[in-house]
Write a structure and sequence with these properties.
- Helix content is 43%, strand content 16%.
- By secondary structure, the chain is of the alpha/beta class.
- The protein has a 3-stranded parallel β-sheet with strand order 2-1-3, sandwiched between helices. Strands 10-4-11 form a 3-stranded antiparallel β-sheet.
- Helix 5 crosses helix 13 and helix 9 crosses helix 13.
- It starts with a helix and ends with a helix.
């Protein structure tokens, strides 16, 4: 056989073998789920205790089952600077491929608006994945107080325990913008000592997240030892539709927007984010998995066993809120002045 014919035949056989290999080969790696064989790092902006850690580890136990490829989760606690350290890390340092997500303090957005220098992130540019629960606190008064409903606080002084920065900011803003007469007492270490102080008559009122109050002090409600006065959040708690929000007391639209600045953390609650720069298809995948997770029977069974609440909000809804939360500079300056008055 001539040499040219042999070469042609050899190339023909090689081409045929390559075609057969292509037809019988397993799917290319690119067709495999992105998360197959990968691990997702979950950054939690607190110590290994409290609500952020509990909700974060709950997600770590369940969300992988709703992502194609079933990735594992590794939890990393990153406390510091009131959640700002973790937010800055997620914004500037974390991988932007969908293998790192996080949960940071709900007040970071407020801190950004108030010009806290250590915040080096734009909260609106995070890719919001979803919220497990909001955190709309309820202001309530002991039954012996003259203030039985919030309208009474315009004519009667109400002594309120304000152990945290959030309550100090909220009630200072309410006094400044609506004319309520809330006298704030600080120095209490936390809700437990504030509740004891109220029972002893040292203070007349305090605020707590509604799920905490409802679950930990059922007898106060059933025995009418307290009167519910006001909700601090942008959203109303689902089972308190008639109880007014502090936003509802605003005298005009500008005052309402300033109160909304202080109420914004309640909307964030216990929410999860991916860093900016994560591809859209990966963000969509994470959001879909989160939505499926919070509806899954095994997840809801654990929530019930833990006696926790779930009030989910989608990542798209959170993203939309931050996209429209463009407050005029003059109103932000008013909020900053109120924060200074509150000692923040």
């Amino acid at each position: 056989m001539p040499m040219a014919a042999k070469i042609t035949r050899t190339w023909s056989c090689a081409a045929l073998m390559l075609l057969l290999a292509a037809l019988t080969a397993p799917p290319a790696a690119a067709d495999e789920p992105f998360y197959k064989g990968k691990t997702i790092s979950l950054i939690i902006a607190s110590n290994a205790s409290g609500g952020y850690d509990t909700y974060g580890r709950l997600l770590a136990r369940h969300m992988g089952a709703h992502l194609a490829g079933n990735p594992g989760f590794v939890v990393q606690n990153m406390p510091g600077a009131g959640g700002i350290r973790a937010a800055n890390h997620l914004y500037h340092v974390a991988a932007q491929d969908g293998t790192v997500i996080g949960i940071f303090d709900q007040a970071v957005f407020l801190n950004q608006l108030l010009g806290v220098a250590s915040v080096r992130a734009d909260v609106a540019k995070f890719n919001w994945i979803g919220r497990m629960i909001g955190n709309s606190a309820v202001l309530f008064a002991w039954h012996t107080a003259e203030v039985k409903k919030i309208e009474d606080a315009f004519t009667h002084q109400l002594i309120v325990a304000a152990s945290g920065s959030s309550s100090r900011l909220n009630w200072t803003a309410l006094n400044a913008l609506t004319g309520t007469k809330l006298k704030l007492l600080t120095g209490y270490e936390g809700p437990a000592t504030a509740k004891i102080a109220m029972e002893r008559g040292e203070v007349e009122a305090l605020s707590l997240p509604w799920p905490v109050l409802r679950n930990e002090n059922r007898e106060w409600l059933s025995q009418k030892k307290i009167n519910l006065l006001l909700q601090a959040g942008i959203e109303k708690n689902a089972d308190l539709p008639q109880l007014p929000r502090m936003l509802d007391l605003a005298k005009n639209d500008d005052d309402r927007k300033v109160l909304e600045i202080f109420a914004a953390p309640s909307l964030v609650g216990r929410s999860f984010v991916a860093p900016p720069g994560v591809p859209k298809e990966r963000v969509d995948e994470l959001r879909a998995a989160f939505t499926a997770m919070v509806k899954a029977p095994e997840f809801l069974a654990e929530i019930e066993k833990m006696n926790f609440d779930i009030d989910a909000l989608s990542g798209a809804e959170l993203q939309a809120f931050f996209a429209q939360a463009n407050y005029p500079p003059a109103l932000i300056e008013r909020a900053k002045e109120i924060a200074k008055t509150a000692g923040n």
